[in-house]
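Help: why these numbers?

___
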Amino acid sequence: MSSAVSSVISALRQLSPRPGPEKVLAEDVRAALTRAGLLVTSEAQLKEGRVDLRVQGTAIELKVQGSPASVLRQLQKYGRDETVVDVVLVTSSAKLRSMPATVEGKPLHVVWLPRL
C-alpha cells in the first residue's frame, strides 16, 4: 500500500460525513483530506475521463448511489490510467461495499462512510 493511499484511508476513517447528495460528501471528504495535510486535486483529468479527487497517484471516486456493475466499470477506467497507483472508492451505499481487491491490476480500497 502506498504512503499516499495509507494517508487517505486514515483521514477518511475519522470522517463522519453529513447527510446529503454526493456534492456534500465531496465537500466533507475534501475537507478531511486537506485537514490531514494532503494536497487534493478535484475533478482530476485522467486518460479516460475525470476522477472526483486525486492525492498524488491515488484516484478517489465518491459514490452515494449507483449499481455495483456501473461503478466497477468506472473504477476500471481509472485503473487503466498509467499515472494511477491506487484507486479508492468512498461510498455511503452499503451495496457498493463489496468490490474486487484490484481493478486493472491496481489495488482498490473501499471506504464505507455510513451517513446518519
Residues 3-112 form a domain with the Endonuclease; Chain A fold (CATH 3.40.960). The first helix runs from residue 3 to 13. The mean pLDDT is 92. The chain has one domain: 3-112.
